[in-house]
Amino acid sequence: KSPSLQLRWTRCHRRLRHQSQLPRRSNDCFAKKRGLDANDLRHALDRCAVLVALNATTLNSHPISREDFHTLLKAADAEMTALLLLALNCCMYGHEVVSLEWSDINFANRVLITDRSKTGVTRIAVLWERTIKALEVLPRTRENIFVGARGAPANANLARKWFDDLRVEAN
């Protein structure tokens, strides 16, 4: 068991029977195809049903309104406009956007293809025309799309500073 995922075993037999009940026919078909007895399947389902995540929380997101986003977009310079549009268009966090490289973007097909740093899963996004235009304005002086004042690749802290500065400027 990984230490980051703490699980607690609970024993509530009535609840387990209720949660694991599936139509008998689907259990039998599943078990027969895999060379198992239906009771083995029920036992496995019972074991899965007793896992309860400790301190499970739902995301407490506070999305901004459309009007607020457009206010930020109007106050943004060319670089921040591209950053905001990429984040919205590709459903990316700030640190993911600033780590993008020019080679991740196929301008001919209007597609972004990159690997997520945390999971390694490939992310593919079809870019809007507005996002492409915002990117084409940016200078291609480095391998990374977003660079700091000294020419080094931007990082999550710098992206946060840029966003905080933009919020102050927009208000």
Number of helices: 8
Largest sheet: 3 strands, antiparallel
Strand content: 5-15%
What's the shape?
elongated
The secondary structure category is mainly alpha
**Strand and helix order:** EHHHEHHHEEEHH
Number of strands: 5
Average pLDDT reading: 76
Helicity range: 40-55%
Low-confidence stretches: 1-24
Question: Measured on Cα atoms, how large is the radius of gyration?
Answer: 24 Å
Give a written overview of the molecule:
This protein is mainly alpha-helical and 171 residues long. The radius of gyration is 24 Å and the shape is elongated. The two termini are 48 Å apart. The longest helix has 15 residues, at 156-170. The chain is built from eight helices and five strands. The strands form two sheets. The chain has a three-stranded antiparallel sheet with strand order 3-4-5, with no helix packed on it.
